[in-house]
Amino acid sequence: MKIRIKLLLFLLAAPALFGVFNPALAASQAECAIWLCLPSGFGPSECHAAHRAFLHRISPPHPKPALPPFSDCAMKGTGGNGDDLSYKQGYAAYVPAQQVCTDNRMFYRNGQRSCRQMAQVPAHYVEGRSCPGWRPNGNGRQIKEMVDGKLVSVRCTTTSREIRVYQSGQQLGDTYHY
Questions:
Q1: pTM of the model
Q2: Are residues 112 and 73 in the same domain?
Q3: Quick check: is 152 in a domain?
Q4: Are residues 57 and 78 located together in one domain of the fold?
Q5: Is the peptide bond between 69 and the residue preceding it cis, with omega within 30 degrees of 0?
Q6: Angstrom distances, CA of residue 160 to CA of 35, 144, 176
Q7: How far, in Å, are 115, 126, 155 from residue 122 at the CA level?
Q8: Which residues span the domain enclosing 81?
Q9: Do residue 18 and residue 84 come from a single domain?
Q10: Residue 20 predicted with pLDDT over 70
């Protein structure tokens, strides 16, 4: 909740801090709005044009960087050149909610292999990891992860791209996956 309040305050204060957008320097006002809307997941209705501009920037046949340089968006001479704004991109493996075995000592019950202790893993992304291809051994797509202090195999389903926006080294909002 605190992050959402900080993000809302940032969205409201950004024009005063960094100046009004100057579309003459950037490709469009919608592209500059990506800087404000991406940390909120493009949630507010005012962010629809920014979301379309973001998708256009990252889509083939001629993809561009996900965000324009912020210095192209801030008006010059306002004291807000955006030098402290940055972003990082990467990949993440998506792990759906699942039960995993946290006790490697397997036993047989009624002729079937069983696990001594199970744990519920909520759906989440594993940042900096990709989900490997399908394995014919029946294990599917699996990656290793710590669960309840033990290294276990969890099933992942896909790899997504991720992007984070930072101001003065502090992440703004949530990581955006696409």
A1: 0.70
A2: no
A3: yes
A4: yes
A5: no
A6: 20, 18, 10
A7: 19, 12, 12
A8: 2-89
A9: yes
A10: no
- Closest CA relative to residue 157, chosen from 135, 177, 133: 133
pLDDT score, position 76: 62
Contact 100/153 with Cβ under 8 angstroms? yes
Which residues pair with residue 94 across a beta bridge? 125, 158
- Number of domains the chain contains: 2
DSSP 10-78: HHHHHHHHH-S--TTTSS-HHHHHHHHHGGGTT-SGGGHHHHHHHHHHHSSSS---SS--GGGTSPTTS
Same structural domain for residues 121 and 71?
Answer: no
Q: Which residue type, as a one-letter code, is found at position 105? A: R
Distance of CA 60 to CAs 57, 63, 130, 144, Å?
A: 8, 5, 21, 33
> Does any domain span residue 172?
no
Q: How confident is the model over 68-115, as pLDDT tens digits?
A: 998 888 766 555 555 678 999 999 999 999 999 888 676 777 777 778
- What whole-number distance in Å separates Cα of residue 66 and Cα of residue 87? 9
What integer is the mean pLDDT of 13-31?
A: 55
**Dist CA 111 CA 125 (whole Å):** 35
Place of tokens 């696990």: 115
- pLDDT (tens digit, 9 = 90+) per residue, 133-174? 755 555 568 888 888 888 888 999 999 999 999 999 999 999
Do 15 and 83 lie in a common domain?
yes
Query: 7 and 51, same structural domain?
Result: yes
Q: Is residue 178 part of a domain?
A: no
